[in-house]
């Protein structure tokens, strides 16, 4: 195998990108994952006493290394949803209000869609889309575990290819979440089989399909509406470079909104959370407002 592939190729690729930062970033990626527990208001669950919180996370939440798996309370719904704090930032970036029309283009298993639902309060429209039927089943399962059926009346699950959505619907949503399929390097590093078959071409191919989805989303969001593009990829190729390509190919049709968060660091077109400095992520997001 060429040394541009497999574990050696991976090492070469990411140490060239992150240079002297790579060893500590790699160590953090291999470390224990932390979680935020976002409380489900329908469960009537409360964490006892005071808990550390993250500034800027507007959901009732607690922060910790290890939480027991979520469980059903007497009210009949799961007590909290566990996710990376950086993932919550994508929902904060959307700045949702009840009544808005929202599509989550790559939604499964559905954690971020669930948080969207908590913000929309069963008003407006929430479409959770995912091309994988098996993964769509997980969206239904999560919604049923966390929300009463009567609170899901504004929710629809669909199975379209999000890169082709613009062929069927245009200027239709106030807000779009595009949490795109990506390299997920943290997962690759932790899985010897994935690492053995890693190749740089995979990142490049993903960047092509991420761009296709984002370009489609730009037609699907209303003029004045916003798209949050996010990935858990480390490399710029799948993050800022996708936004840069949109600038070249769709010049003048959108602007990037630069927003700062309590965890993470600014990038050219967005915000990135990396675990070596913050203990969260990896996660990247960019906020795009359609101008015309
Ligand atoms: C990063 S995961 C989404 C995670 C999800 N947003 C969450 O928070 O639970 C990416 C998802 O995109 C879906 N996907 C991949 N290609 C797609 C496409 N062309 N159209 C729609 N969904 C796609 C995958 O099935 C996968 O579930």
Account of the protein in words:
There is one protein chain. This protein has about 290 residues and is α/β, with parallel strands linked by helices. It has one domain: Vaccinia Virus protein VP39 (Rossmann fold, 3-Layer(aba) Sandwich). About 35% of the residues lie in helices and about 20% in strands. It has helices at about 5-20, 20-30, 85-95, 110-120, 135-145, 185-190, 190-195, 200-220, 240-250, 275-280; strands at about 35-40, 60-65, 80-85, 100-105, 125-130, 155-160, 175-180, 220-230, 255, 265, 270-275, 285-290. Helix 4 links the parallel strand 4 (about 100-105) and strand 5. The chain is globular and about 55 Å long. The model has no long low-confidence stretch (mean pLDDT about 95). The chain binds S-adenosylmethionine. S-adenosylmethionine (SAM) binds near residues 129 and 181.
């Amino acid at each position: 195998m060429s040394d541009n592939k497999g574990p050696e190729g991976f090492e070469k690729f990411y140490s060239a990108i992150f240079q002297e930062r790579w060893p500590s970033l790699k160590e953090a990626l291999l470390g224990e994952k932390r979680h935020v527990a976002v409380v489900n208001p329908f469960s009537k669950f409360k964490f006892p006493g005071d808990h550390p919180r993250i500034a800027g996370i507007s959901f009732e939440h607690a922060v910790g290394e290890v939480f027991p798996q979520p469980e059903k309370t007497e009210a009949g719904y799961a007590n909290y949803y566990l996710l990376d704090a950086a993932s919550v930032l994508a929902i904060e970036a959307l700045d949702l209000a009840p009544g808005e029309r929202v599509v989550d283009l790559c939604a499964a298993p559905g954690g971020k869609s669930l948080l969207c639902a908590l913000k929309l309060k069963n008003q407006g429209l929430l479409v959770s889309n995912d091309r994988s039927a098996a993964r769509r089943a997980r969206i239904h399962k999560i919604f049923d575990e966390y929300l009463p059926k009567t609170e899901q009346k504004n929710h629809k699950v669909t199975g379209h290819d999000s890169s082709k959505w613009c062929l069927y619907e245009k200027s239709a949503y106030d807000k779009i979440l595009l949490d795109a399929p990506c390299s997920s390097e943290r997962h690759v590093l932790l899985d010897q089989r994935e690492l053995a078959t890693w190749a740089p071409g995979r990142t490049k191919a993903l960047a092509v399909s991420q761009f296709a989805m984002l370009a489609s989303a730009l037609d699907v969001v209303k003029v004045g509406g916003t798209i949050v593009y996010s990935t858990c990829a480390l490399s710029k190729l799948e993050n800022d470079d996708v936004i840069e390509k949109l600038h070249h190919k769709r010049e003048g049709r959108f602007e990037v909104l630069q927003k700062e968060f309590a965890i993470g660091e600014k990038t050219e077109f967005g915000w990135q959370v990396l675990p070596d400095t913050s203990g969260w992520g990896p996660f990247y997001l960019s906020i795009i407002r359609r101008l015309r």
